[in-house]
Amino acid sequence: MTTANEVLDFVKNLVDELKDYEDEITFDTTLAQLDLDSLDYVQTQIEVKKLFGVSLNTDLFISGKITTVGHLCQYVANPIMETETQPAAVQ
Amino acid sequence: MKVAFDHEATLNWANFSGDFNPIHFDIEMAKLAGSPDLIVHGMLALLHVKQATMAQLPPHLGWQQFKVLFKQPLMQTHGVNFNFFEKKTGLGISVGDDAKEYFKGICSPLSSPVLAEEVGSVFVIDAAQVKAKQREFNLAFPSVDQSWIFIDALVFSDFLRHEFKRLGIDDNATKNSKSTKIVVQMSHKVIFNTLILSRLLDDTSIPLEISYTVARPRAFLEPGAEFGTVEVTVFVSGQIVLQEEIGLISKEISF
Lengths: 91, 255
Known about the structure:
The complex is a heterodimer of chains A (91) and B (255). In chain A, 53% of the residues lie in helices and 2% in strands. Chain A is mainly alpha-helical and 91 residues long. In chain B, 28% of the residues lie in helices and 36% in strands. In chain B, strands 1, 2, 3, 4, 5, 6, 7, 8, 9, 10 and 11 form an eleven-stranded antiparallel beta sheet that branches. In chain B, helix 1 packs antiparallel against helix 4 (127-140). The longest helix of chain B is centred in the middle third of the chain and has 17 residues, at 147-163. Chain B starts with a strand and ends with a strand. Mean pLDDT of chain B is 87; it is low at 168-175.
């Protein structure tokens, strides 16, 4: 089972790939602080699906359900069961 | 030093790769895709970014991962700078001008490539074809001399020719309907090992046949966009020499 700390390590590496963010990334770091653009969100969705098998619907970010790294780590570690807003995976 | 890509370079890449997407040749299609001018193929610009990246690194480092995101469309004849800087996990790469960053990436060490669990297709490029394409590549892009960059370009091009439509992506956009789907590359990742390649390629008496496998694509649907990645693993003499992950995004454009 994936832990939030494992996801945090993944997020740190991903942010190093995508951004020039120098500060320490913690659960409290907000996604706004990371200054993610739409392509960064797409990359995050792809990498999370690939590594953890979890689908991240864009609506999770737009609706404000995920606004911090901590929210993201918790969601990936304990994904909510299928909802009406779950993204369609085209496999 | 500023680098720019003109119509001749664009045509050379299109001829080599078979990528005649209208956003590179038709100004109206480029405008519909959000660019005021004709757009440079990401992979054309990347040839030179990869070559410049290698100049920043010591030779034969073992497995390396080169990954770039295409953040903004780069316009033809528009001069850009290549910048390199240290990051926590590797060499940071930025291609831009004073106003914008067009490509962003990183080159970092990797233990080894991981084979995809599900392989969809296997392709072989025979030795004669490899030789002919290498000659064409060397003539069109004489400043690019790293063999992994050629193999990456060759396999990417062969993949485009064989697999693009099979994936349900049609790049032959027409203006006859009220809307069309434009597919653009959003990212490119290459895992390579120059040491393994140099051992295999130094013995020029052996005809070089290249084979590659295409993994089942990972794709997602979101309102207004479809995006995904395709993983391609490349073999020479039965040994993995390179792996590509191609990121594609398709958008509906209305006229």
